[in-house]
Design the sequence.
């Protein structure tokens, strides 16, 4: 190595110092690798958490959009099916629960209630064929968006 021009005594000291440093190189390298793995793992967990938050936000947006479209459907159907007041009450109550949901579990439960009430409301709308020939062109066009919002 570099000990070519050194005296034997100096050569011995130099080799001892090199051997001492070699003993520390592997543990330090292992610690550096572990630290990098921990940082990478933490960053992965943060990215996963952000992804989950983003997905929940999309679901929340779809649920809100669905809740916002319900009054249009109710208004369209209400004129033709005045005797079906119970269905309209159920739709309004389930929509209020969906809008007031604070947790994912509450939102899921409210969404199921909305789905049941809307299926009954859509059955009523099918029973009245005049709804498809309504003179209110924008409201019937929003009904498919309401159904699509259910797919999320």
Sequence:
């Amino acid at each position: 190595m570099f000990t070519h021009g050194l005296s034997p005594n100096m050569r011995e000291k130099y080799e001892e110092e090199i051997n001492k440093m070699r003993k520390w190189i592997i543990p330090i390298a292992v610690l550096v690798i572990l630290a990098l793995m921990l940082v990478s793992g933490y960053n992965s967990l943060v990215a996963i958490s952000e992804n989950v938050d983003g997905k929940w936000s999309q679901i929340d947006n779809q649920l809100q959009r669905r809740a916002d479209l319900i009054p249009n459907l109710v208004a369209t159907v209400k004129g033709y099916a005045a005797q079906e007041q119970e269905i309209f009450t159920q739709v309004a109550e389930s929509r209020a629960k969906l809008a007031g949901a604070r947790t994912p579990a509450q939102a899921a439960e409210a969404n199921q209630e909305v789905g049941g009430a809307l299926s009954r409301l859509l059955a009523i709308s099918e029973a009245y064929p005049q709804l498809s020939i309504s003179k209110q062109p924008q409201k019937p066009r929003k009904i498919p968006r309401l159904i699509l919002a259910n797919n999320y």
In short: The mean pLDDT is 78. Residues 8-78 form the longest helix (71 residues). The chain has one domain: 8-149. The chain has four helices and no strands.
